[in-house]
Amino acid sequence: MNFLRLSELDLAGKRVFIRADFNVPFNTDGSLADDTRIRATLPAIRHCLDAGAAVMITSHLGRPAEGALTAADSLAPVAAALSALLGRPVPLIQGWTSGHFRVQPGEVVLLENCRGNVGEKADDPRLAARIARFIDIYVNDAFGTAHRKECTLHALALAAPVACAGPLMTAELDALGRALAQPARPLAAIVAGSKVSTKLTILESLADKVDVLVLGGGIANTFLAARGCEVGASLHEPDLLEAARRVERRLAERGGVVWLPEDVVIADRFAADADVRISDAERVPAGWMILDIGPKSRDSLAAVLARAGTIVWNGPVGVFEFDAFAAGTRCLAEAIAASPAYSIAGGGDTLAAIARFGVGERIDYISTGGGAFLEFLEGRELPAVAALRARARPASRRIEPVPQFEHEPEPS
Ligand code: 3PG
Ligand code: MG
Hints:
binds magnesium ion
């Protein structure tokens, strides 16, 4: 991957601006539900502080209206979490695009929710120019948001004196690139979710790359229906049967296979306490729905994954939130963990499954990206990465001497 990396730069005395992805979930009482994304950015922050930089970090949180942030949109809980993790104060700065705030070398400040700035979502170059005036080095460590073309991800990367990738961004791109560019074979991808329609481009792109495409959830049901199986009342998309057949054909032409369950766990309704049976996947009785893969399928899936060289995992194969339909996803998680294959996983549901079944330590790489992870799998160029690449071209790679603290901070 051709872009400048944070580790290559001399940061002493520099004003370093880090774009992170602190778009984290909260509990109903306002406390943080998961701080993975915050902890994942600590190496970048510590590296800059240790090198003697004056560190500014920002992130978006949610999807607020520009110019109208409310208390619920504030990064205040993130500032508190960061402060606890770093063991030092992390002041939260409002109205920061003026550059009128104080941060000295060896200090770190958090800049309030960047999606509150007018021009952020439109990738406004004027907003980028305003921010670029008070920074020396721009660092993008926000892999989770790399699929958005917004000011602090794209225009600012182009406008800043120097733009580089942080260690999290670098690790994500290395891990995903390694899994898809030169994978140890067989390459198995697990793609599960409710609808083929939302993942059709991913399925088509993977059909050109993988050796085994393991499908789960409503996606698998649509592929079963496309093979002529009776899926009963299972979630599926009758208008996408031809699209499903196209994916199977494309894969078959390359000698690959779509893995589908031979037996399934079915229920008479979508509920934790529904009546449950095991059924042949070819003939689900009318009125019943598939909510998990069956015991024979669990064994066959585990065998496929044991033989894989590389595994890419996105999505559970059953409704694992309900105990009665959790066995398939548990087996999947444990089979990936036990496989000698290089394994990467990403996406919200997948992270929840990894946590529930306690296999996190045994997955080789867990992405912090949801949408960004999926767009990478689709083979799309992520706008934030494209901007870093553009800056890595020889002419723009030279580090211009930037006057230190050219923008005189106002006393706070
Ligand atoms: C995410 O959580 O998927 C990223 O932070 C991107 O957020 P967005 O979907 O609101 O752009
Ligand atoms: Mg999202």
